[in-house]
Amino acid sequence: MNARSTLPALVLLSVLVGAVALAGGLAAGTATAQTANATADVSVDDQTGAASVTVAEATLPDGGYVVVYNVSGGIIGTSEYLDAGTHEDVTLEVSPALSRSQVVVGEVRTDDGNEAFNASADAPYTNENGQPIGESAYVTVEQTETATATATATATATESDATATTAATDESTETSGPGFGIAAALVALVGAALLARR
Known about the structure:
By secondary structure, the protein is of the alpha+beta class. Helix content is about 45%, strand content about 25%.
């Protein structure tokens, strides 16, 4: 093979290798994006509380947010912007605080690029079926502490009122007792004096 025929063959071979590499890179990039989106995940455990919900683990391949929905489907808590990767024990303050035990749903959301949560612009990460990636958990709200505190306060107030009433009654009785005794003694003395004059 002479130099003249070798050069075009090398150029053709280089073009072919470049095209294959480019096609492979595009395919790899597409596969990576699909794989990254497929690895988004969230895990929420059953828990007790009213003012916050803790998400055990959230994986956000491209960064974003974790949000929590209440039983009515309203967003009640949102995390700060989270970088790409897996985050553990993400605590979200909920507002308003949960007033009763209920099921909540934790969901992972993308970010539209401004790192400020916007419910309409920051779409949920989705699975292969196009469904938002989320997990539900049961949050128990303990009522006994509040009920006990109220009952104790009421009982204490009632006892205080009863003690005050008893004390007032005792004072009235004590006050009227000696006064009645003196009046009776005066009447007796006046009566004795009148009898003595006759």
